[in-house]
TrEMBL record:
Keyword Transcription assigned: no
Domain of life: Eukaryota
GO cellular component, one term: CHRAC
Region (Disordered), start-end ranges: 148-198
The protein's name: DNA polymerase epsilon subunit D
Ranges in a coiled coil: none
Length: 198
């Protein structure tokens, strides 16, 4: 017996689940990003704007800096931000999918998204997206190395220090490998040298 509320179609058969999903209309309310995430992003942008204004005032001879204020976003503004962000991302993804299909790929890569940004008229966002993507990739590599070494989490400030030490140590290791000194160097001395470089 079908669930309560299901009606028979014109032929007298109960519809299947896939048929019901096809008949379902998807609205933007079904696709909205979480309100808390959107509001947090808006506050983060406001914080960065305030920091930039403070830095500019300090660079120009210590002019008056407006006091930092918490950004208050009412319900209607948050809903407008949610809807506009959802529409923008879906529009961008539509063109990124087109670029992936042109390249005979099934999945969208970061390169497809960057191409779509340029195509829809936002080449200025391309650099910011590329920068955030690179930061995320570096964080993932650091997390992967950390999990490989031990299972204890590293605080964010130590993670950045480890990343900087790694970037300094790589060119040194390459030059040492070229000279043949990498095999004879003591690991404790190498660690002390990389920590001294920071």
């Amino acid at each position: 017996m079908p669930p309560k509320g299901w009606r028979k179609d014109a032929q007298g058969n109960y519809p299947t689940t896939s048929y019901m999903k096809e008949q379902e209309n998807i609205t933007i309310d079904d696709l909205l990003f979480p309100r808390s995430v959107i509001v947090a992003l808006a506050r983060d942008v406001q914080q960065k704007t305030w920091e930039a204004a403070a830095a500019a005032a300090a660079a120009n001879g210590g002019g008056a800096v407006p006091p930092e204020q918490k950004l208050l976003i009412n319900k209607d503004a948050a809903m407008a931000l949610q809807r506009s962000a959802t529409i923008f991302v879906n529009h961008l993804l539509m063109f990124a999918r087109e670029f992936s299909r042109e390249n005979d790929k099934r999945t969208c890569t970061a390169e497809h998204v960057l191409q779509a940004l340029e195509y829809i008229g936002f080449p200025g966002l391309k650099y910011a997206v590329q920068e955030k993507t690179n930061e995320w990739l570096v964080a993932q590599q650091l997390l992967k190395k950390q999990r490989g070494q031990d299972q204890t989490p590293v605080p964010a400030d130590e993670g950045e220090a480890a990343l900087q030490a790694e970037s300094v140590a790589q060119p040194e290791a390459e030059t040492a490998a070229e000279t043949g000194a990498a095999e004879t160097e003591d690991p404790a001395a190498k660690k002390a040298r990389t920590e001294a470089a920071n």
